């Protein structure tokens, strides 16, 4: 029985229980003492099965809401529905029991050390938190992102967040996004060319191809720099982006690495700092050189008659988000280089892994459902006269079924599987008073599987997003981009990019997914991804 195998030392830091695991990956179970209660954190479903069979779990009374990076634990927060895990019925048994034992209400309460958590996954409860102008502060788990992102839009609070949000909203206007079409098109063309070598009906992992493409897209749109990640996936910058995300995730999920001192003593702080040096070096370097360019151009423009600007200077330069921020800064809106760096790095972080996961999940599901993929091919063949035709706003508007497939994939596999707020004042959810200081987690993965809102929730059915079906649902039943005042500022950008990248693959190829849904294993890291990549077979379309 795995429960005896955990390799750890249990310690107390003041009142805070901690577990030091020397070989965290090998520890198959971790016990944490919290006063008279024992909390068990399990790492895989086999242990849970054994735990249930031997009646160990009910005796512990802990809902395995997080199981060491494997997402199945999170899925197990509720007693309802079937989950995308190897043994879904297990979670219903374990967690069904836990819920009744705990509270018997449609949300789940948990403690991590002395920290109270509330997990919510019903639309009316989610609305209370996300629609509110009071519950806007992110939970303390986001602080591990501060060294990289500072307090940019994602991580800031209060008046800083408010003024930045107001300043940045116009940067995501359709008119500005339209200028990015050229980048989306050129980078997706490159990706499709790279895939040509793999379209030989042999299985391969397509995940890295899509991720490198989205990384190229975000670098060019956010910073105006083409880092050519698709040609050089081994560059220091590309490696640093991936490594730092993994290190942040590691710290968030290992309580013993959360104190700065312990992180420096036993964590990977040296590697973390080395990544930061590379990432910040590139961001600051780009900001400085673009600022000099901007100032030169401004001087040049002043000298020329206004009406001649574009003809004389040449083709109007496409602006990256960074250029807009520089413009605000030069207009005297109080943005220092560090402020700009925070926002650019935030776009880099939020804007590529999320879209990559969403495109991968869409392709995965279409690869599992050839009949729906055939309908998408039909739609694309109607819209485009050739597979190489660049996508414009007109074609984007016509891709209705493709868009609904992307939305349905984001329902089943939301790139951000949960988000967390820390209550600064009491909230009332379902007539329960939730005290200030509670960390409220919106479990999007579970919310999107509410059978009252999405009948037969595990079924992939893009027609759920036909307007007549959307209007029947609760407005907070589907929130892949969060909702309310702190929703995702990049969602229009993301949908445009996803439609262009996905359609460029499907215009050339037919995809078959090699992993059956029942064999799928999910990793709930900062984003939700398939544990073993996205193995597909690609066939050229004749
Ligand atoms: C499929 C793609 C994407 C998904 C699923 C997604 C999802 C989300 C979610 C759920 C949040 C709320 C996070 C929280 O409350 O902790 C968020 C916030 C944010 N996203 Fe996205 N995102 C995507 C793409 C993008 C892109 C492409 C950008 C930028 C280019 C972006 C920029 C941001 C920013 C800056 C925030 C913070 C907004 C604020 O707090 O005011 N996202 N996103």
Strand residue content? 5-15%
Structural class: alpha+beta
Molecules bound to protein: protoporphyrin IX containing FE
User: Mean pLDDT score, rounded?
Assistant: 80
Oligomer description: single chain
Low-confidence stretches: 1-105
Query: First CA to last CA: what distance?
Result: 54 Å
Family: Belongs to the cytochrome P450 family.
Main location: endoplasmic reticulum
Subcellular location: Endoplasmic reticulum membrane
Keywords: Endoplasmic reticulum, Heme, Iron, Membrane, Metal-binding, Monooxygenase, Oxidoreductase
Overview of this structure, please?
A hairpin with a 2-residue loop joins strand 5 and strand 6. The protein has 23 helices and 15 strands. A 4-stranded mixed β-sheet has the order 5-6-11-8. Strands 7-15-12 form a 3-stranded antiparallel β-sheet. A two-stranded antiparallel sheet has the order 1-2. The model is unreliable at 1-105 (pLDDT under 50). Helix 17 packs across helix 20 and helix 17 packs across helix 23. The longest helix has 35 residues, at 269-303. The radius of gyration is 24 Å and the shape is globular. The chain is an alpha+beta fold. The protein is 48% helix and 12% strand. It has helices at residues 45-53, 56-60, 72-75, 88-102, 123-130, 146-149, 158-168, 174-179, 181-196, 207-223, 236-253, 260-266, 269-303, 309-313, 321-330, 337-350, 353-368, 370-383, 393-398, 400-412, 444-447, 467-470, 491-508; strands spanning 9-13, 16-20, 29-34, 37-42, 107-112, 115-120, 204-205, 419-422, 427-429, 432-434, 439-442, 509-513, 522-524, 528-530, 535-540. Bound molecules: protoporphyrin IX containing FE. Protoporphyrin IX containing FE is lined by residues 138, 153-154, 165, 346-347, 350-351, 354-355, 358, 415-416, 419, 480-482, 486, 488-490, 493-494.
